[in-house]
User: What shape does this take?
Amino acid sequence: MKQYPANKIKNVVLAGHGGSGKTSLAEAMLWLSGAADRMGKTADGNTVCDFDPEEIKRKTSVSTAVAPLERNGLKINLLDAPGLFDYVGGVNEGYRAAETALIVVAAKDGVAVGSEKANKLALTTGRSRIFFINKLDTEGANFYKAYEALREAFGPSVCPVVVPYYEGDALKCYVDIIEGKAFTFANGKAAACDMPALDNLDELKDQLNEAIAETDEELMMKFFDGEAFTHDEIVKGLSMGIASGSIAPVYCGAALNAEAVELLLAGIEKYAPTPCDVAPEVSEEGTEIKVSESEPTAAILFKTVADAFVGKMSFFKVLAGKISSDSPLVNMRTGTNEKFGKLITVRGKKQEDTNCIPAGDIGAVTKLGNANTGDTFCDPGRQVTLKGVEYPNPLLSKAILPVKKGEEDKIASGISKLIDEDPSIKFVTNAETHQMVLSGQGDQHIDVIVSKLKSRFNVDVILETPRVPYRETIRKTVEQQGRHKKQSGGHGQFGDVYIRFGPSEAEGLEFVDEVVGGTVPRQFIPSVEKGLLNCIKKGVLAGYPMVGLRAALYFGSSHPVDSSDMAFQMAASIAYKEGIPKAAPTLLEPIGTLKAIIPNDNMGDVMGEVSVRRGRVLGMDPAEDGMQILSAEVPMAEMGDFATFMRQCAQGRGTFTFEFARYEDCPSQVAQKVIEEAKERGEIE
Assistant: This one.
């Protein structure tokens, strides 16, 4: 593939709700442009963009794929992003590299949650928007219903460019409003036909002209005076409006049969902005990055693939300058100089070597070992830091353990490589519960991770609900003697202590020395504290750490020969084990603060669910776009599947955060269940 200057490159991310046909649309665009020699189908598992074994098996995209095409002297880099909410990290990667979001909407479904999220992300990230109403060939498809839903949801910036013409229920042709031409399609190829008598053509033209008038004062005056725009004015106004985000044109068709996709390609070619047409990016240091090959190099690494055969492959977009195989660049995160090795352009799973990636373009490099997604690489003479890729916090956690014992290291190593590829994955080993905990966006996300562990790293795993890190404390004050005496020939062991145990505000152990008269020799007092510190790691109820404990050593005795550090540690342990059960021990459960952003219509359901989960609602506050913020405190033990509930309740519109707040007394029925589970695990007698 030849190299193109920045003003001949267009980077387009395909976004929208799952199942709207994004991958099929990309497939049709690649085939029509000659970048693919046939049109694959997601159902058959042979598309260019869904090439990963997981995508073929699930018949849906799980990561963003890059697929460039060439058309009439332009290079269009398509970035096919996932539609399912569990893979939102991939969507953010695609948006980071694109100037334009092509938001695909299924005609039968209209504005779905994924459409709303794709539109909002485009607005918040300053990306241009183009809508494509897809699947007009399916039963029950209704273009005008979907189009009006778009205008109702996103405002008058949404305007028509290509619309269908029906006779009864039969779709006869597609009308390009700007060109005033109509086309039929057979096998993806356009054939001009007579312009039909569209009943609402004048209304549609007015909507288009009104949106164009908003882009320029002269055009606005002309519009109000009732003068018609020239063709050149329409083209210029539409291009300016799309680039600025004030216009979102609507195209339509049927991607599976490549119907009217040619008109969409022509629209992208004419109207979508190049990297040179949008506002320059500003670095964190305040430097404006001009898109030009003559500028010092600056590039953002927006995606990583952990390929089983090639190794680590890093995708990057060059904002300024150019990257060659021998380019000495600075990684701004590490501060080290790195040379890019083998440069490639990628179309799905196919790779092609190249010696240079210029400004505005997208490329990949293999074996860039110390690089992570979101890293900035720049010329040593102008060190700038570009905004990275945002990833959502994980919502669902599962304990993960190997089917075969001893493969814990294989799990950790495999997940580490998958995190390079998908930073929205989190993985920790909980030192307290001794569990490896895997966190992701939802059930499907975690299921894909498990599947990749097996296929790529040959390790089978089991998922469990993570154990909650309970705590134990006491509510009464007791005094207890601990006496350790052992004679086994030669020196024996002797330690004798009296300790007053009581509640404390301390986080762990508050140790107090109240010994008078030397009844416990000074050199052994630290031994008593050390013995207690070892003991509080395991409470007497369910084996959880003891907190809020005051231990006052006030009396004891010793032997001039047999007393030792270990003997007094043992004496302290005996006092702990015999005294704590008498001090009204209780189990504490962690309480977290929940902040859920939910649609108004779902507030009652979520509040009810919080109550069922033993939570306390703290308040509600209005948010934008008809949403409410619900604040509540909920026991951590009740939050395991809350992400699944939220997804189902609000159809993906709701989001939430949950952070630890404090510990509280555990209700007796819950405490009893926790204690029984601890006994089953053999952690207490």
About this structure: Residues 137 and 254 are 6 Å apart (CA to CA).
